[in-house]
C-alpha cells in the first residue's frame, strides 16, 4: 500500500510544501504553514468529475436576468452596498474585527427576509442556540417563524438542514468553525475552510434551487480576511465592516461585487438595541448649530463614499507650542498629508505655523481618503488661527497643489448638487472647475485660483 504524504499549505498565500518550515518560501510569512490533507490523485479527480451530473451549455443570449432575482431587504444601507439587494444564487462573505457587529447584521438580514416570506437558516459554529436567541430578543422587534437556528460545526449537517427546510437564505457564522466529514484537517485550516466554502458555492449556484448565502469570515490581527486569498476569489461579494476605536459608527464596505459597483459604503450606528441604519449620513457627520452661529476651526466639505456624496465637518485646533517640535495630529487624515497642507499654508498664504500645534479630526470619526478635502482642511486650520468662524452655509471643495493653486476634483457636479439639496448657500471651487448644471442650482458657486484668494473672500466680512 502506497504511503500517503502529508502536505503543508501556507494560510497566507496558498503555497504548498512537502514538509513543515517556519517561514513560507513564497510570501516570506512566519508560522503560516499548516498541515493539510493530500491532494487527490488524477485518477480520483477524473472519477469524481465523471460521477457528477452534467450541466448543459446554454446560449448567452438566452440566459434570463432581472431584478426579480434579488432579495431586497428593508435595511437601506445594506441594499446600497450590495447594489440593490442580495442575488438569489450568490455567495457572499462578510468579515470584520471582533465586536464590530457582523453577526448582528447577518441576524437582522435573516429576520428581515423571514418577515417577507423567505425561509432563512442561521447556522452558527461559535454560539449556542440560546445565545443567538438572547441576541435576537435584544436587537429584533420579534422573531418570525420562517427563521431557523442551527448550532453545529458539521457542514454536512448544515447542508442537510438547508435541503430539509428548503431555505431561501442561509448564514454560516463563521465559515472557519465548520468541518466536512472525510476531510482530515482541523477546523479553520485552509483545506477545511475551502472545502466547506466550495460545498456552499455548489448549494448557492444550484440552477434547480438557487439560494443566497452569506458566510461570516474571521479576521486576522492585520485586519485581513483569515484564510487563503482563493476564498475571496471564490465568492461573488466581499463585505468588510469597520469601526474607529471608541466610536459607535460602523461602516460597511464592498471590495468585490459581481452584481454591482465596488467601493460602495454604508453606515450604521451601534446602539444598545443593535445596528441602526444611517440613511442620511450628511446630517450625521455635521454638528447641528443655531442659524448664524459660527465656531472657529470648523469647515465643511463634500466627500464621496462609493457613488454617494456626503457632507462632512472638519475640525481643527491650532495652539501655541512650547516645545521645539510642534505636534501634528490628524485623527482622520494621514500625518504626511496634514504636514504637506501646513507647509502650503506657511509658504503660499503667509500664515506662520512653525511654532503651533495643529490637531485635526472629523465629526463622527470619518476617515478622509481623497484630495478633494484639502481646501477644507486648510480653511479649518486658518479659521482656528484667526479665531474667526466660517459661515455654516459655506463649503469648500477643491484640491490644493504645492503652488497654492486650487485643482479640480472628480465628481464635482454630484458634490455640489448634494450641497444644494441640503440647503447650503455658497461653495468654493477651483477656477477651472467644470459645472454643467451651474445655472439650475440655487447655491452660489465661487471660483478661486489660489488658497490666498479663498482666505481673502471667505473672511472678507
UniProtKB/TrEMBL annotation:
SMART domains: AAA. One of its GO terms (biological process) is recombinational repair. InterPro entries: AAA+_ATPase, DNA_repair_RadA, P-loop_NTPase, Ribosomal_Su5_D2-typ_SF, Ribsml_uS5_D2-typ_fold_subgr, Rubredoxin_2. DNA-dependent ATPase involved in processing of recombination intermediates, plays a role in repairing DNA breaks. Stimulates the branch migration of RecA-mediated strand transfer reactions, allowing the 3' invading strand to extend heteroduplex DNA faster. Binds ssDNA in the presence of ADP but not other nucleotides, has ATPase activity that is stimulated by ssDNA and various branched DNA structures, but inhibited by SSB. Does not have RecA's homology-searching function. Plays a role in repairing double-strand DNA breaks, probably involving stabilizing or processing branched DNA or blocked replication forks. HAMAP family: RadA_bact. This is DNA repair protein RadA. Belongs to the RecA family. RadA subfamily. ATP binds at residues 96-103. GO terms for molecular function: ATP binding; damaged DNA binding; zinc ion binding. It comes from Ethanoligenens harbinense (strain DSM 18485 / JCM 12961 / CGMCC 1.5033 / YUAN-3). Residues 88-245 form the AAA+ ATPase domain. Residues 357-461 are annotated as: Lon-protease-like. It comes from the Bacteria. The middle region has homology to RecA with ATPase motifs including the RadA KNRFG motif, while the C-terminus is homologous to Lon protease.
Amino acid at each position: 500500500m502506497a504511503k500517503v504524504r502529508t502536505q503543508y499549505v501556507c494560510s497566507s498565500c496558498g503555497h504548498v510544501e512537502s514538509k513543515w518550515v517556519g517561514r513560507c518560501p513564497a510570501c516570506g510569512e512566519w508560522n503560516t504553514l499548516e498541515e493539510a490533507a493530500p491532494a487527490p490523485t488524477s485518477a480520483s479527480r477524473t472519477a469524481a468529475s465523471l460521477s457528477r451530473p452534467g450541466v448543459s451549455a446554454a446560449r448567452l443570449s438566452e440566459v434570463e436576468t432581472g431584478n426579480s432575482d434579488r432579495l431586497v431587504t428593508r435595511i437601506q444601507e445594506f441594499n446600497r452596498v450590495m447594489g440593490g439587494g442580495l442575488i438569489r444564487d450568490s455567495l457572499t462573505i462578510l468579515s470584520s474585527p471582533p465586536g464590530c457587529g457582523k453577526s448582528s447584521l447577518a441576524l437582522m438580514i435573516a429576520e428581515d427576509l423571514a418577515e417577507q416570506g423567505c425561509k432563512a437558516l442561521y447556522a452558527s459554529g461559535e454560539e449556542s442556540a440560546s445565545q443567538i436567541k438572547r441576541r435576537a430578543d435584544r436587537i429584533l422587534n420579534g422573531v418570525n417563524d420562517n427563521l431557523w437556528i442551527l448550532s453545529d460545526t458539521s457542514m454536512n449537517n448544515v447542508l442537510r438542514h438547508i435541503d430539509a427546510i428548503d431555505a431561501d437564505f442561509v448564514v454560516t457564522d463563521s465559515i472557519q468553525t465548520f468541518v466536512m466529514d472525510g476531510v482530515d484537517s482541523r477546523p479553520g485550516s485552509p483545506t477545511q475552510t475551502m472545502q466547506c466554502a466550495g460545498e456552499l458555492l455548489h448549494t448557492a449556484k444550484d440552477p434547480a434551487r438557487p439560494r443566497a448565502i452569506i458566510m461570516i469570515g474571521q479576521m486576522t490581527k492585520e485586519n485581513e480576511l483569515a484564510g487563503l486569498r482563493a476564498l475571496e476569489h471564490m465568492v461573488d461579494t466581499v463585505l468588510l465592516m469597520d469601526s474607529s476605536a471608541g466610536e459607535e459608527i460602523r461602516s460597511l464596505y464592498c471590495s468585490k461585487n459581481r452584481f454591482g459597483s465596488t467601493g460602495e459604503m454604508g453606515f450604521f450606528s451601534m446602539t444598545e438595541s443593535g445596528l441602526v441604519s444611517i440613511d442620511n449620513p450628511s446630517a450625521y457627520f455635521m454638528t447641528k448649530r443655531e442659524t448664524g452661529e459660527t465656531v472657529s476651526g470648523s469647515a465643511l466639505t463634500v466627500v464621496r463614499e462609493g457613488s454617494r456624496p456626503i457632507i462632512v465637518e472638519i475640525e481643527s485646533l491650532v495652539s501655541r507650542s512650547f516645545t521645539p517640535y510642534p505636534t501634528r495630529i490628524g485623527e482622520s487624515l494621514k500625518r504626511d498629508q496634514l504636514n504637506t497642507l501646513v507647509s502650503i499654508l506657511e509658504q503660499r498664504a503667509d500664515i506662520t505655523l512653525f511654532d503651533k500645534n495643529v490637531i485635526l479630526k472629523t465629526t463622527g470619526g470619518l476617515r478622509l481618503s481623497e484630495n478633494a478635502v484639502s481646501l477644507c482642511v486648510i480653511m479649518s486650520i486658518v479659521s482656528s488661527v484667526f479665531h474667526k468662524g466660517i459661515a455654516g452655509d459655506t463649503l469648500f471643495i477643491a484640491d490644493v497643489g504645492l503652488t497654492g493653486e486650487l485643482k479640480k476634483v472628480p465628481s464635482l457636479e454630484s458634490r455640489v448638487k448634494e450641497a444644494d439639496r441640503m440647503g447650503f448657500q455658497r461653495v468654493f471651487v477651483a477656477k477651472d472647475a467644470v459645472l454643467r448644471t451651474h445655472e439650475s442650482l440655487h447655491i452660489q458657486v465661487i471660483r478661486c485660483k489660489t488658497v490666498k484668494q479663498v482666505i481673502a473672500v471667505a473672511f472678507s466680512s
